[in-house]
Amino acid sequence: MGKLRIYGDKRSGNCLKVKWTAEHLGVDYEWIDVDVLSGTTRTEEFLALNPSGQVPAVILSDGRVLTQSNAIIVYLAGLNNSALLPSDLYTRAKVDEWLFWEQYSHEPCIAVRRFQKSFLGKADEELDPQLLTKGRRALGQMELALQGANYLVGDVLTVADIALVAYTRVAHEGGFELSEFPAIRQWVARVERDLLIDQVEAA
Fold first, then answer.
1. Is 53 exposed, middle or buried (0-12, 13-18, 19+ CB in 10 A)?
2. Under a CB-based contact definition with an 8 Å cutoff, are residues 82 and 20 in contact?
3. Do residue 30 and residue 95 come from a single domain?
4. Same domain, residue pair 93 and 35
5. For residue 98, what are the domain limits?
6. Total structural domains within the chain
7. Which of 106, 152, 160, 188 has its CA 20 to 30 Å from the CA of residue 194?
8. DSSP string of 55-79?
9. pLDDT tens digit string along 77-133?
10. Is the full-model pTM beyond 0.90?
């Protein structure tokens, strides 16, 4: 039985979710850097690991492969019987709500606009204006949910918070003004403290 191996790019929020969850849970892991901009994820070797050509991908201690960031963090939390994954069925379903929403309504706008703007160097006029509109709408929904609440679900940190904080904390790199969302800013700082990760200063 080997240690967990995480293939990821540290510029990717999806990959950082897995790294942070593993560290929070005290999971022994090996990080394998994969530069997504270099074409590494399209090599025959990597596609044999993950046919979708995406990171993160993990090789579990028993040699099995698991992909998709939210599936991985749920697995790790469940494997360790962690409070990151609620035992109550309804509360767990509320966590799942946020996980599905993050990949459908949040990441495709906020992460995509950040990638195109900060990593591909595209000017605002080259970007789909709907990315900004839909991203702001997603942040607005989070702001409402976090008003008067410390976390997205219940009173403790869950994988829902880890999944959502990854790209929300760097949303300013995609042109989203987090100063307009005070509850989100407080939540981001709280989750960063919980995970013992450096705070990101918005521009």
1. middle
2. no
3. no
4. no
5. 89-195
6. 2
7. 106
8. S-EEE-TTS-EEESHHHHHHHHHHH
9. 999 899 999 999 999 999 999 999 999 999 999 999 999 999 999 999 999 999 999
10. yes
